[in-house]
Design a protein that fits this description.
There is one protein chain. The chain contains 16 helices and 17 strands. It has about 475 residues and is of the alpha/beta class. Helix 1 crosses helix 4, helix 4 crosses helix 5 and helix 13 packs across helix 15. A hairpin with a 6-residue loop joins strand 10 and strand 11.
Length: about 475
């Protein structure tokens, strides 16, 4: 292994996106972890646990470059593993950014989509995704693993990690660095963490709480709207069991109060969400409007009423016909005159026909980001009791009680459901909620109070309770 001082000097010289050098912006926690990883003495297995926002992927990229360029032997192989190809690509993008912005590194490194090559030494860093087919047969001098606790808990992901980690003894003085936020204790990474804590071969560094440069108001917003276990995992780096139900039964009882359908009123702006399923899934049309909530300390608070909820169920033998949906949509439009948001899957022709008939129709494209916003918005509205739904609808009540929030990638949720159940009504309602409440005000007073109490209990500096200039994002 090379000189650790040279590795630290290179890491400190890397230019961040805001123009500062890593060494100027790094927190003492980051410096301690970097010195330990780059040291030629002590453990060669490192678990670096940090909350969200603690510059994990940026530091993984910087440490990888430092080891590649100052410590590995010519022709050595290094590997970085991420949850999926998108996260893997993010890691190579971070490395490319460093090599592009840092004058001392221009021309010394070639960065491809999933590969980084040190030109002089021939050291190669391959960036792998945990959903790759196989990782057996590798001989890593350096193995870096990004967000292990957020990987899928499938057998393939576990095998992928085991194949990588068990390849380390093939190479003398090989090194492994796991940089991750804590996850669900049921995840396979928790067993790895527990073993690392007890092993003299590992160094475990676990940083609790948000990074000091993060805006506490933004943190409070997340605390106010995320399920508590997810918030504790992401922003306090605590191992917390999933609380994955969409709605608490008491909150659902408080929501199921409207005598529907509610007749339209002049002067109100309505939104319609149409989620289409022709065979296995149902087609659901939800119409709603937003109005003020009588909360003395938050006049900006808004509530959504679902005024109309229609559901059609097709089958393989008798699929639902789009013509039937079109007729119903035209009738609803004549009454409520809503803005329409329609799932374009299987319905491009329907959207075109409705638009030609004068309906204000926009496609709602389902992506990992958009489904995350739907899940977050619906959960938040139900939790805050700012959503009113049709009373006496047993099918709706049963569906919402069986809808889950599934984490698909770090901090990204989507609606899911128990086996044999559906979430079609939840999706249509979530579309309406999203378009009516996005950007509305929230009350973060209780969240800020909780944050202060936790900081005091953990001995966090009072500066963490204020927006702090500097630091990394």
């Amino acid at each position: 292994m090379g000189n650790p001082d040279a590795g630290l000097a290179l890491l400190a010289s890397l230019v961040l996106e805001d123009g500062r050098r890593w060494g100027e912006a790094a927190h003492p926690h980051q410096w301690r972890d970097a010195r330990a990883v780059l040291s030629v003495d002590g453990p060669r297995r490192h678990w670096l646990g940090r909350a969200r926002g603690w510059s994990k992927t940026t530091d993984v990229a910087g440490l990888s470059l430092a080891v590649m360029l100052t410590q590995l032997s010519p022709g050595a192989a290094a590997y970085a593993a991420a949850a999926d190809r998108d996260q893997a690509r993010l890691l190579t993008d971070k490395i490319r950014g460093f090599t592009t912005r840092t004058p001392e590194l221009v021309g010394s490194v070639t960065t491809q989509a999933y590969r980084v090559v040190a030109e002089r030494s021939g050291v190669v860093l391959d960036v792998l995704a945990a959903d790759a087919a196989s990782s057996y047969g590798l001989t890593p001098s350096l193995l870096v693993i990004d967000e292990l606790a957020q990987w899928s808990s499938t057998a393939n992901a576990r095998e992928f990690y085991m194949a990588l980690s068990t390849s380390l003894p093939k190479v003398p003085d090989s090194r492994m660095v796991i940089m991750t936020t804590a996850g669900d204790p049921a995840h396979f990474s928790k067993r790895i963490f527990d073993a690392a804590v007890k092993s003299p071969l590992w160094r475990v560094s676990s940083t609790a709480g948000p990074a000091p440069w993060q805006d506490p108001v933004e943190i409070a917003e997340q605390e106010a709207t995320l399920p508590p276990p997810l918030f504790r995992r992401l922003f306090w780096n605590e191992w917390s069991a999933s609380e994955d139900r969409l709605v608490d039964p008491a909150d659902l009882v408080a929501a199921l109060v409207l005598d529907c359908p509610v007749s339209p009123e002049g002067g109100r702006s309505y939104v319609a969400g149409l989620d289409i399923g022709l065979k296995n899934d149902a087609t659901v049309l939800a119409v709603g409007h937003a109005g003020p909530v009588d909360v003395e300390d938050d006049r900006s608070a808004r509530r959504v009423d679902i005024d109309l909820l229609l559901r059609w169920q097709g089958s393989r033998e008798k699929p639902l016909q789009l013509e039937d949906i079109e007729r119903a949509a035209l009738e609803v439009n004549s009454r409520y005159r809503p803005r329409w948001y329609v799932d374009p899957w299987q319905a491009a022709g329907l959207i075109q026909r409705l638009s030609r008939r004068g309906l204000r129709v926009e496609e709602f494209v389902f992506s990992s980001q958009s489904v995350g916003r739907l899940a977050h918005g619906l959960y938040s509205a139900l939790k805050a009791r700012r959503l009113r739904l049709p009373a006496g609808d047993e099918a709706l009540r049963s569906e919402l009680l069986n809808v889950r929030l599934r984490e698909t990638s770090p901090g990204v949720y989507r609606l899911d459901h128990d086996s044999g159940r559906h979430d079609d009504m939840a999706v249509a309602i979530a579309i309406v909620v999203h378009h009516l409440l996005s950007g509305s005000g929230r009350d973060f007073g209780s969240a800020l109070s909780w944050l202060r109490e936790r900081n005091a209990a953990l001995g966090a500096p009072t500066g963490m309770l204020r927006a702090v200039n500097g630091g990394m994002s």
